Amino acid sequence: MASPLVGTVIITGGSGALGSAIAVAIAKKQPLAHLLLAVRDTSAESVQQVIEKIRGIGPRSVEAARVDLTRFASVNEFASNTVQRIKRKDIPPIIALVNSAATLSYVSDPLTTDGFDPVYQTNCLSPFLLTVSLLGGFRAGTGDADSGALVLNIGCSAMSDGELDYFERKWGQGGSTPGTPLRAKEGNIRFGSSKLLMSAAMYGLRRSLRLAGNIPLNICTLDPGGMAGNSRLSTNMPSSVRFTHRTRASLRPLMRIFSKTAMNTTNVPAKIVAKLAFDDNPPQDSELDRYYILDDVYEASSIIRVLREQTKMEELLRMMMQQVRLGMEGMQSPSPAPSSM
Ligand SMILES: NC(=O)c1ccc[n+]([C@@H]2O[C@H](COP(=O)([O-])OP(=O)(O)OC[C@H]3O[C@@H](n4cnc5c(N)ncnc54)[C@H](OP(=O)(O)O)[C@@H]3O)[C@@H](O)[C@H]2O)c1
C-alpha cells in the first residue's frame, strides 16, 4: 500500500526563480508532501519545467493551480477550492504555505479592478487574504500555538526602504497617470513598503490567532538575501538598478566571503525553507515572533519596529481586514510579543 501523504505545501510563485527552487528542495526533503504550486498561468513553460524536475526526483505528488494575486476573486476561488478539497480528503491538510510570489514595477500602474496599486495588492494584500481564507485548511496542531502549520512569507531587505503609510499617501488618490516612469528610489520605496506592510500585518495576524486560541499557525518572514538566478523581478528593474544587481551577482563568490546573505543561488534559501517546513524540532517558544535572514533567527520587532506599537498594529490589522473585505468574528487585538532575544 502507498504511504499516506503527510500534508500539502502551497507555494505561491511556485514557478518563479525562488518558488520553483523551494518546490524542488521540499520534494527532495519530504517525498510524502503534496506540492500545490499556486501560479498565474498553469500552462506556462516554467510551470511544466518545475513539475518535470520534481517528477524527475522520484515519485512525488505535485500539481499546479491558478491564482492571480491582482484579483481578490481569484484568491478567494483558489482558497475556497483548496479548503473544499481538503475537507473532501482529496488532498491532505496544509502543513506549509510559502508566500513567495511578488511583483516589482518602476512605472505608475493602473489600479487593479479591486482598486489598489498592483504592487501592493500582489505583494501584501493578496498573501494576507490567501492566508486568512485558507485557515479552514491548515493542519490541526497538538494545541500548542505553533504546532499546526507554517506560513512563511518571503521578505526582502528592501523592506528597510519601506514606509507604512506609503500606499495611503501616494496611491490613495489614484496615484500618478498610469505609465509614468518612477525614479529608481521611488520604485524601491514602493516595493519595500509592500513587503514591510505584508510582514507586519502577518505578524499581527499571528498574534491575533494566538489570542483566539485554537488556530495553531506559526507565521514568520524569511529574507532570502540577494539571489543570483533567473528572477523575473529583475527584468522589471530600470537599467541602473539591474546593473547593480548583475554586478553583485557576478561578484557572488567574493561577496560570500564577507556576508553569507550577500548573493546566493536560489538553492541556498530554498533548502532553509524546506528545513523550516519539515523541522523535526520545531521552535518551542511560541510567544516569539521569528524573523529569519537565511537561517539566522531574530526577534521580529527588532527588524520591524512597528510590532512594538500595539495601537498602530491594531490599526494596521483593521485596515488590512477592511481592504481585503474580510470581517473576522472572534479575532482579538494583537499585542506586542515579549522581546526575549
Ligand atoms: N531575486 C532576489 O534577489 C530576491 C531577493 C530578496 C527577496 N526576494 C523575494 O523572493 C521572492 C521570489 O522572487 P524571485 O526572485 O523568485 O522572483 P520571480 O522569479 O520573478 O518570481 C516571482 C513569482 O511571482 C509570480 N507572480 C507575480 N505576479 C503574480 C500575480 N499577480 N499572481 C500570481 N503570481 C504572480 C510570478 O509569476 P509569473 O511566472 O506568472 O510571472 C513568479 O512566479 C519574492 O517575494 C522576492 O521579493 C528576491
TrEMBL record:
Gene3D superfamilies: NAD(P)-binding Rossmann-like Domain. Belongs to the short-chain dehydrogenases/reductases (SDR) family. One of its GO terms (molecular function) is oxidoreductase activity. It comes from Elaphomyces granulatus. The keyword Cell membrane does not apply. Keywords: Membrane, NADP, Oxidoreductase, Transmembrane, Transmembrane helix. The keyword Transmembrane helix applies. Signal peptide: none annotated. This is Ketoreductase (KR) domain-containing protein. The chain crosses the membrane at residues 6-27.
